[in-house]
Amino acid sequence: LAAESILLLGEGDGRFLEVLLAAGCRAQIVCVDASPKMLDLAAQRAAGRGEGKAERAIRVRFLNGDVSDLRLPVGFRPDVVGAHFFLDCFREQELLATAANIARWSAPGATVVITDFTAPEGGVAFPGVPADFRDAVFFPYFCRYFSAQVARYP
User: Fold this and answer.
1) How far apart are CA 27 and CA 20, in angstroms?
2) What angle, 0 to 180 degrees and rounded to 10, lies between the N-to-C axes of helices 36-47 and 15-22?
3) How many helices (H) and strands (E) does the chain have?
């Protein structure tokens, strides 16, 4: 990935970060998550093993916080923003505010990479369950359940 600076929102335990670093990414990276435990796990993945361990530690910063009041390091303007399975847990107004923050934080022409759930072709999530019903019932439950699980790792 040819980027100078990358912002990873809701990075969790660092799986995407680990892949970036293993692929030789040389960018300055800021990882944000609301859970200190998840950030600890991400830092362990980022440290990795072998050559370059110290250099990786210098290039990657971990910020614990909420994206609604996030303060990025002075001068950090990412040219890539990653949000993997993160934005789907926001209500509409929160999502709009987060999108505005991403635009404000990012360098001009930045790339935003979003990985998320999608409705299956044909609109049927499970046999006999329309996607509209699934979106209204299952995803909010998943988000509440997942948030409760993360809350157990303060």
Assistant:
1) 9
2) 20
3) 5, 7
Could you give the CA distance from residue 133 to residue 125 in angstroms, rounded to a whole number?
Answer: 9
- The tens digit of pLDDT for each residue in 11-51 reads 999 989 988 888 888 899 999 999 999 999 999 888 875 55
Most distant pair of Cα atoms in the chain: their distance: 53
Work out the burial of residue 34: count CB atoms within 10 Å of its CB; fewer than 13 is exposed, 13-18 middle, 19 or more buried: middle
Tokens (6 digits) for 53: 């361990």
Query: 109 is written with which tokens?
Result: 């022409």
DSSP 34: S
84: its two tokens: 């993997």
Tokens representing 127 are: 């046999």
d(CA 41, CA 70): 20
* pTM of the model as a whole: 0.74
